[in-house]
Design a protein that fits this description.
Blueprint (H helix, E strand, L loop, with lengths): L2 H16 L4 E5 L5 H8 L7 H8 L4 E7 L4 E19 L2 E16 L2 E12 L5
Antiparallel strand pairs: 1-3, 2-3, 3-4, 4-5
Length: 126
């Protein structure tokens, strides 16, 4: 079987498999936990252990250099993406989606600040 035929077979199988899917979710950030987190938040008091208790282990980690002292902070990343209400049309696939992201910034083991973002997209909206 040549590579073109294999590619078309894979695309066909993937299309057939997803035709039955009504929703999919990626990630584990429970946006409902954000208000709980905000109530418990006290900069310089909340630790990485506290965050893991609420959200579980981070999905990704990194570092950020923060002015004016240009200190290096650890960054933890959480995200979830939920896609629902798939609709198939002529040459298009429409779906509603929700994307949520949380960045946490730590100095040593203590939380300094955070940023969270959430957006919902309705494919049927004009």
């Amino acid at each position: 079987m040549n590579s073109t035929v294999r590619l078309l077979a894979c695309i066909g199988a993937a299309t057939a498999a997803t035709a039955c899917v009504t929703s999919q979710e990626y990630g584990r950030l429970d946006i409902d936990q954000i208000p709980v987190f905000e109530r418990e938040l006290a900069a310089g008091v909340v630790t990485k252990t506290d965050i893991e208790r609420i959200f579980g282990p981070p999905q990704a980690t990194g570092e950020a250099v923060v002015p004016p002292e240009f200190a290096t902070w650890d960054v933890w990343y959480y995200q979830s993406v939920f896609v629902d209400n798939f609709r198939f049309g002529e040459g298009t696939v429409l779906a509603d989606a929700a994307d949520r992201m949380l960045l946490l910034f730590f100095s040593d083991e203590r939380l300094e600040t955070y940023l969270w973002y959430g957006a919902e997209f309705d494919a049927s909206a004009p």
